[in-house]
Amino acid sequence: KSSNSNILITGGAGFIGSNFIPYFLEKYPNYKLINLDLLTYAGNLENLKEVEEHPRYKFIKGNICNRELVEYIFKEYDIRGVIHFAAESHVDNSIKNPGVFVETNVNGTYTLIDVAKNYWMEKPFTYKKEYENCRFHHISTDEVYGTLGETGLFTEETPYAPNSPYSASKASSDMIVRSYHHTYGLNTIITNCSNNYGPKQHDEKLIPTIIRNALQGNPIPIYGDGKNIRDWLYILDHCKGIDLAYHKGKAGETYNIGGRNERTNIYIAEKICEILDELLPIEKNKKFNSSSIIHHPSSYKSLITFVPDRPGHDRRYAIDATKIEKELGWKADENFESGIVKTVKWYLEKYL
Ligand code: NAD
């Protein structure tokens, strides 16, 4: 890999990208990162304030579906690697409005990888190796594998069986990336990760929703019976996994990244309430002293309210991360109980 690389990061103003960019800039002093982000409702430049003025960071507002713009960026910055986060990412939104998921996740990924392939293939590289070193890393989800019963884990060999328009669009984009490796010899990597949590996540997602509603004394909505299981991955553990896969992963391979932290949604809600009970007991929370709340419950747990289930709600996801652990030496540093305390502390600052 060229030691002075310009790398295109897409969707860097979103949750994962905005955690990844500062981490990556600091770790690799030879990289310049160009962040292409449309700033949809999910993108927030506030999350990148710490790197705004960084000499090796450049932000470009734009759409990954805009071929002319993407071509311009490749030429202007002589891009030698791509780490592709940009996507529509919220399952509930994909149920209401699937079209934009197909547009961004499928067409956007196609546009990006096609421009990358053309640019790198047409470049008058002196050595074939230079083409082979230009990596296209696609960030995907374990939701492409569908749902699990009580037992079993998703491996890289699990057949794709997406159930929501979101996961179907991600599955389609994975297939496009796969085909560019097999057809054009492009140096691709796909990582499929489980549910991330940590600082900077959009308010709409489960954990910020639980924390925000609890702090404001509002009902904490939990879908169905709360027994759906997700495998939780602390954001910085994910960033380290991406870093390893980008640098050491074998071209054309897929790596699953999961924290081996299966928890039910109701456990998560109760755990967060317990942490809040310690960090900010209800009697010290000013929101509970407003006239609209007459009875003070003793724990935030009393705010938990079950709401009708999401259509097509997958019951259980869980990842077998053996491949990335064994082949690349990755391992999660946080378990859910340690990572969630850090997360709640961050949101306490944000919401109060
Ligand atoms: P996010 O929704 O927080 O951020 C997505 C970013 O992409 C936003 O900044 C948005 O403005 C940008 N974007 C959207 N459409 C765009 C377009 N057409 N052109 C350019 N930019 C556009 O998402 P996230 O949680 O950071 O997820 C990043 C990636 O990781 C996604 O591909 C997602 O599918 C995948 N993923 C996320 C999780 C998770 O738990 N968050 C789990 C598995 C996989």
From TrEMBL:
Residue ranges occupied by any NAD(P)-binding domain in the UniProt entry: 8-342
Segments traversing the membrane: 6-25
Group of enzyme by EC: lyase
Keywords, comma-separated and alphabetical: Lyase, Membrane, NAD, Transmembrane, Transmembrane helix
Pfam families on file: GDP_Man_Dehyd (PF16363)
Classification via InterPro entries: dTDP_Gluc_deHydtase (IPR005888), NAD(P)-bd_dom (IPR016040), NAD(P)-bd_dom_sf (IPR036291)
Domain of life of the native organism: Bacteria
GO terms for biological process, alphabetical: nucleotide-sugar metabolic process
Cofactor(s) needed: NAD(+)
Keyword DNA-binding found: no
Catalytic activity field: dTDP-alpha-D-glucose = dTDP-4-dehydro-6-deoxy-alpha-D-glucose + H2O
Secretion signal, residue range per the UniProt entry: none
Gene3D superfamilies associated with the record: NAD(P)-binding Rossmann-like Domain, UDP-galactose 4-epimerase, domain 1
Documented EC number(s): 4.2.1.46
MF-aspect GO terms: dTDP-glucose 4,6-dehydratase activity
Database matches in PANTHER family: DTDP-D-GLUCOSE 4,6-DEHYDRATASE-RELATED
Family in the record: Belongs to the NAD(P)-dependent epimerase/dehydratase family. dTDP-glucose dehydratase subfamily.
Protein name as catalogued: dTDP-glucose 4,6-dehydratase
Protein source organism: Hydrogenimonas thermophila
